[in-house]
Inverse folding.
């Protein structure tokens, strides 16, 4: 938007700027950055810095050794006549000049969690379907979780095209994240279902729900947004009656 003076050398034509009002998002700037060296604070970066420092010390020791040998030649003395202290320095320098083999350890590569798509016989689905009144036309096979065993914390949903891509490219394509969260685990006591609706994906699953839905008025919205404790007594009468009809309700 405000390019610098050397804009011709930056190859900005290879970048993409996504404006917020064009995509209803926070705005993004997409570019590919080539990493030319290890970060100074990483393991490889520190190892390279130590290696450079070691090479500089070896060069200094080599220079000192050369000066000692030159003194031997000028004075016409044999190496055996050199004082013990200089001989120790010489031996120590030659030992340091021998290159040390450093074993490079591979950094641990993070393995992404799997994408486990639901089947018709998934055990947690009947309670969700009954509690929220999900109709049979709901595309259950397009919903997935990120673990095979244990408690499923979040449930995600994708469209049919993305679902096929992820399934066909399993093991070939590294997918970090996809889909939108529609249900999230909430182990609340006294509740028939262990999952609550997620605000991120409410628009995706709302057409498939037949219960746990209440139409509220504009005044109710104002109460929910402005009151620190929006008690049921402050809601519209019809709204309160509809909520109480759902079942358990804290007055």
């Amino acid at each position: 938007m405000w390019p610098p003076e050397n804009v011709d050398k930056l190859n900005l034509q290879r970048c993409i700027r996504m404006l917020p009002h064009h995509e209803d998002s926070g705005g993004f700037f997409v570019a590919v950055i080539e990493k030319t060296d290890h970060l100074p604070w990483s393991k490889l970066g520190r190892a390279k810095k130590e290696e450079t420092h070691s090479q500089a010390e070896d060069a200094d020791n080599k220079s000192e050794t050369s000066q000692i040998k030159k003194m031997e030649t000028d004075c016409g003395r044999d190496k055996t006549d050199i004082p013990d202290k200089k001989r120790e320095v010489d031996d120590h320098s030659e030992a340091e000049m021998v290159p040390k083999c450093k074993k490079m350890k591979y950094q641990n590569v993070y393995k992404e969690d799997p994408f486990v798509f639901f089947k018709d016989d998934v055990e947690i689905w009947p309670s969700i379907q009954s509690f929220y009144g999900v109709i049979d036309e709901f595309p259950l096979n397009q919903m997935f979780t990120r673990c095979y065993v244990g408690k499923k914390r979040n449930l995600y949903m994708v469209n049919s095209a993305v679902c096929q891509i992820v399934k066909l490219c399993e093991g070939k394509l590294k997918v970090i994240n996809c889909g939108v969260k529609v249900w999230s685990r909430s182990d609340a006591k006294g509740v028939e279902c262990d999952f609550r609706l997620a605000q991120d994906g409410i628009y995706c699953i709302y057409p498939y729900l037949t219960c746990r839905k209440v139409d509220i008025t504009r005044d109710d919205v104002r109460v929910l947004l402005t009151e620190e404790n929006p008690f049921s007594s402050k809601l519209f009468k019809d709204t309160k009656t509809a909520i109480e009809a759902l079942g358990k309700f804290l007055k």
Notes: The helical segments are 20-23, 43-75, 84-97, 125-132, 160-168, 202-205, 218-226, 237-244. The chain is about 35% helix and 10% strand.
